[in-house]
Design goal:
acireductone synthase activity; Transcription Termination Factor Rho, Rna-binding Domain, Chain A, Domain 1; Enolase-phosphatase E1 (inferred by orthology to a human protein); 6 strands; HAD-SF_hydro_IA; globular; Rossmann fold; 6-stranded parallel sheet
Length: 239
């Protein structure tokens, strides 16, 4: 048995198509307007500087990235490139979180959550299981998906949230840091994901692991099917 669940979002509690076709598309289509409005805002200065520094770093490994940013248009081109490549870059995720916050608050977006997720999490919560989220999206973006979901505000179900500030999701050390942060042994934590490399990293850190196979998820290797239990719903977690 497990004392806590650490769950991924995309492809696990939420459809990949929602993230890619709704969230990513919104960010790509609206980044020019958003940055034009906030570029010279003092409250945005920290994010702005991170994006400029990120452009310098990424320009060293990607010839299509504008390394020496001179204006908002340059940054927008870089951001659309990163979104297209689904880059797991913390400053990018921070910017997307700010953009999505505005969209959610204006009623332009509702977070998708699979039907089986809320009742399963509620049952687990009643049994005393701690519930945590770990996603490459920023903590702000995580709370928005669950706070403005089609199923209502689900944020009350979760005990804490983790993003790439604690480490990348394919690094074993990230999972060790999370277990230390929540004061539980890795073997007492069940990690749920749709990504094989993440499952391997969590397993190597000592976690229990189950892989979700949702509609639209990438096919798993034969090795993944042998090594991990593959499920298609959260219902099995409450049995």
């Amino acid at each position: 048995m497990f004392k806590a669940i650490l769950t991924d979002i995309e492809g696990t509690t939420t459809s990949i198509s929602f993230v890619k076709d709704v969230l990513f598309t919104y960010a790509s289509n609206n980044v020019d307007n958003f940055l034009q409005r906030f570029w010279n805002n003092k409250s945005f200065e920290n994010v702005k500087n991170k994006l400029i520094k990120l452009s310098e770093d990424e320009g060293n490994v990607d010839d299509l990235i504008i390394k020496d940013v001179e204006n908002v248009d340059d940054i927008c081109k870089n951001i659309r490139r990163w979104i297209e490549l689904d880059k797991k870059l913390t400053p990018l995720k921070e910017l997307q979180g700010l953009m999505w916050e505005e969209a959610y608050n204006n009623g332009l977006i509702k977070g998708h959550v699979y039907d089986d997720v809320p009742p399963a999490l509620e049952n687990l919560k009643k049994k005393g299981i701690k519930l945590y989220v770990y996603s490459s999206g920023s903590v702000k973006a995580q709370k928005l998906i669950y706070g403005f979901s089609e199923k209502g505000d689900l944020t009350k179900l979760f005990d804490d949230y983790f993003d790439t500030n604690i480490g990348h999701k394919i690094d074993v050390s990230s999972y060790k840091r999370i277990s230390e942060t929540i004061s539980l042994k890795p073997s007492d934590i069940l990690f749920l994901t749709d990504i094989e490399k993440e499952a391997i990293a969590a397993h190597e850190a000592g976690y229990q692991v189950k892989i979700l196979q949702r509609p639209g998820n990438s096919p798993l290797s034969p090795e993944a099917h042998k090594k991990f239990e593959v499920i298609n719903s959260f219902d099995i977690l409450t049995c």
